[in-house]
Design brief:
Blueprint: E1 14-20, E2 32-39, H1 44-54, E3 58-61, E4 67-68, E5 74-81, E6 87-89, E7 92-96, H2 101-110, E8 113-114, H3 126-132, E9 135-136, E10 139-140, E11 145-151, E12 157-161, H4 173-176, E13 181-187, E14 190-191, H5 194-211, E15 218-221, H6 231-237, E16 244-245, E17 248-250, E18 257-260, H7 266-284, E19 293-294
Parallel strand pairs: 2-5, 3-5, 4-19
Antiparallel strand pairs: 1-2, 6-7, 7-13, 8-14, 9-10, 11-12, 11-13, 15-18, 16-17, 17-18
The structure holds flavin-adenine dinucleotide.
Flavin-adenine dinucleotide (FAD) is lined by residues 26, 59-67, 81, 97, 122-125, 127-129, 131-132, 134-136, 174, 181-182, 212, 214, 218-220, 293.
């Protein structure tokens, strides 16, 4: 296969061809990426510059826990950042955007820093969480983030302060700029008591296990919370629990989750999402907006 860019610019990164993306997303479905790069941060400026100049399609992937991949795959380059150690400087935590939230929250706990307990059970990376302003049980990324460092398609590395992120419910500056790669982030949790932090994380994990279908592939909550309602409750009250299209199913345990009940295709999931949206609208007049993104499209 001819390369649209010089792969010699990748010093510490790995490149694979025709990589099945089902291995990299929590829904466990979808086709292949023409190229898949596990990227070292130091290689990011040169790579983005080369890719932008080549006109090649590219998309960023974190832990793949909020995305779908089309059945036909992605005809371009998928870039996933390597994870790294969490650096602790006084009360601040600095981390590569490819590191998981679980690792970040665990390190905070080990250093008696409180404020990241909510993030421990969210299965994404720091990059995906900043992009989405991920949140749970009353906490959100915006509450603890100090700044992020990102790379532009021109290969320029810039810093963004907390305010400049313009965080909102499941949105941030980076949603308006999908061309920017978040490289790292800095957090400032507060001083706390390690045993209390540990207990809080265990309690939230218990609540998740009790209420969410964690044994089935999914991408978490399928729809955003419409103002004044809960998506899961609207879907359940529409009689859709267990409703199935192909291999995609509305979870019996939590109607807010569409799950891969076995060999689901991306097409199945999207058809089920449309059916849910139509049914809920017809019944309650409420528009459900999909939270899950399609890789490289939104
Ligand atoms: C079982 C389960 C439970 C969940 N519970 C929650 C929850 O409680 N709260 C919640 O908010 N979410 C939840 N989610 C959804 C998901 O985990 C979050 O949205 C998470 O923040 C996504 O992170 P990710 O690394 O997996 O991102 P991905 O899904 O890989 O990517 C999401 C978006 O971010 C972009 N992106 C990823 N990394 C970067 C980067 N470095 N630079 C630029 N863009 C990037 C991608 O291009 C994509 O557009 C859950 C998901 C599952 C499967």
């Amino acid at each position: 296969m001819s390369n649209p860019f010089d792969t010699g610019i990748l010093k510490n990164s790995q490149i694979k061809y025709n990589e099945p993306l089902s291995r990299h997303i929590s829904f466990r479905l979808g086709g292949e990426a023409k190229r898949f790069i596990l990227l070292d941060i130091a290689d990011a400026p040169a790579l983005l510059k080369e890719l932008a100049a080549s006109g090649e399609k590219y998309a960023f992937l974190g832990n793949g826990t909020n995305v779908l991949v089309r059945d036909g795959g992605f005809d371009g380059t998928v870039i996933k950042l390597k994870s790294g150690e969490v650096q602790v400087n006084g009360g601040r935590l600095s981390v590569s955007a490819g590191t998981t939230l679980a690792q970040l929250a665990q390190t905070a706990c080990e250093h008696s820093l409180t404020g990241l307990e909510f993030a421990h059970g969210i299965p994404g990376t720091v990059g995906g969480a900043v992009m989405m302003n991920a949140g749970a049980y009353g906490g959100e990324i915006k509450d603890v983030l100090v700044n992020t460092v990102y790379c532009t398609p021109e290969g320029e590395v810039r810093t963004l302060t907390q305010k400049e992120h313009r965080f909102g419910y499941r949105t941030s500056f980076f949603k308006e700029h999908p061309e920017y790669l978040i490289l790292s982030a800095e957090f400032e949790p507060k001083r706390g008591e390690s045993s209390e932090i540990k207990n809080a994380m265990a309690e939230l994990a218990r609540r998740r296990r009790e209420s969410q279908p964690l044994d089935k592939p999914s991408a978490g909550s399928t729809f955003k919370r419409p103002e004044g309602y809960f998506a899961g409750k609207l879907i359940e009250d529409s009689g859709l629990k267990g409703f199935t299209i192909g291999g995609a199913q509305v979870s019996q345990k939590h109607a807010g989750f569409v799950i891969n009940a076995g060999n689901a295709t991306c097409r199945d999931v999207l058809a089920l999402c449309s059916h849910i949206q139509k049914t809920v609208y017809d019944r309650f007049g409420v528009t459900l907006e999909r939270e899950i993104k399609i890789l490289g499209e939104e």
